[in-house]
Task: structure prediction
Amino acid sequence: MNKTVREVVLAHPITEPPVAADFAVIKRELPRQLPAGALHVRPLVLGLDPYIGQRIRGRHMGEPAPAPGESLPGEVVASVLSSSDEAFSVGDYVVGHTGWADEAVVRAAAMRKVDPAQGLAEHLGILGIPGLTAWAAMTQLASIGAGDIVTIDAAAGAVGGTAGQLAKLAGATVIGIVGGPDKARIVTDQYRLDAAVDYHKPGWQGELPGGIAVHLENVGQRVLDVVLPRLRPYGQIVLCGLAQHYADGSAALLPVGPIIGKRAVVRGLIVYDFLPRLGEWTSYAAPLIREGRLVEVRDCANGLGEAPAQMERVARGLTRGRAVVDLRGS
Amino acid sequence: MNKTVREVVLAHPITEPPVAADFAVIKRELPRQLPAGALHVRPLVLGLDPYIGQRIRGRHMGEPAPAPGESLPGEVVASVLSSSDEAFSVGDYVVGHTGWADEAVVRAAAMRKVDPAQGLAEHLGILGIPGLTAWAAMTQLASIGAGDIVTIDAAAGAVGGTAGQLAKLAGATVIGIVGGPDKARIVTDQYRLDAAVDYHKPGWQGELPGGIAVHLENVGQRVLDVVLPRLRPYGQIVLCGLAQHYADGSAALLPVGPIIGKRAVVRGLIVYDFLPRLGEWTSYAAPLIREGRLVEVRDCANGLGEAPAQMERVARGLTRGRAVVDLRGS
Result:
């Protein structure tokens, strides 16, 4: 090989949510010889998540931040250019962390093969971890009956949008909770949920009905406090993230009295527990996506050079739907 | 009839936890003629619970406090002296609220018949609402496997003592959490749980192991905060009361982050939902009680006149096990 490639890395350590100027493009030399058990890959699409903004400043699950110059976290769909692992062949498509780079050499065991006939960017969103999160939350942790009222926080996002559609498929009346009118439109017009409630609007609390059977929370206190009194007896809350609190490190708290009073069931979800069942989800979802019965809204930036600006937009909550960077045009 | 009976009532409205001097014994005239659908009963044993202390000062589930002179809440086992309801006969034994009285006339529909062969005081405790609470918590809400570590707050109490024994019967290693060495002895010597941890002892937190599979909480924040970090992944918390908070009206709060991190399942329990299944519980439990495989510790005062002092002891947390007043000796 002996090839020079571009990679986006941190320009300096950061303590605040990342902005575009925190990143730099460096040149990196790929190893001349592919080590054993490795893949030489070409990243095609990069997925960007809010957690990355926390992770690269050392605020995610206790993991250390990458040092300036080190590869950044973020799942990528990539094509295999060469392989020294017998489980992978040239032309395979894989998903995993490669760094934000033109090309990369990665450990084969850390990559998972995906079916390009099911999509490419889809494997970072609706067919990937966010979709798996939504599936686990709505079908494995929650129990949804036809006619149930289901509320979904961050319903325009990658997890929430899929979760809302899955609840609709289960026959529920689904209300998406979002911040801002354009996200509300995504929820009603693109994900076709029954209603959107915009928590930027004064009095939004009054738009939520009583009798909520299932609530999915991936943001934090602000919505939890409003939903809990509106939960029906035996109502279920699935907790799968605290985006509102990642930024400031504050704690979200659930009052015990109303949990007892409502006979509520509260469940915490860590999506990685469900990784062995990803194939179960993708083979269920891929035909629905093909038929247009499950949709994914993507917010796509073009070219490796745009990754820093897109990351800043993700960290500021400005992206709509699944945030990705298409690296093919760079 | 035309009979004068004694009844214990509030002497004056109260705002603080009750003390003996808050009560008075009055004389009451029973109606000359038994109304339709009524029972004339002789209370035999009165059960006293912490919630009564809240209820009679207007602090329980929004119900108004009884006015001075009105009958007090509290379940009683009584024998039927005469009946104008075809579902009940003279000599039947019933449980329900009669007031704290020598004799009383009550609505038949509000009483439930019990089997005296299963016990008398038992129907107010282990075979009554506290036992049903323990059964619902340990067998219907929680799922306990052999070898699981189970922790029980207020383990010397009527609910906790039965819950701990049920967890033992399910094959768990059970640790009771109590306040004080005499309660700790009840837990290990009488309920035969595996260990007791006394939260009055400095450093008690360190005596709790990690890997807790199921925790039963009926007290509040103090123990919850210590147990949550020691819960095993997928651990279960059943919430069935907040005795610590009834007294001061403060809120107990569960942090959402650790619930997610632990993939915990938190369930709220209201025992009244399980009342239709009380027979299921008593026919399971009565033979175990007979064989000594389930025991109940009772703290018994003797005579109607002792009810006020016993209520004060309950409100101050001084009773041990199921607090009752035997009215037969009065």
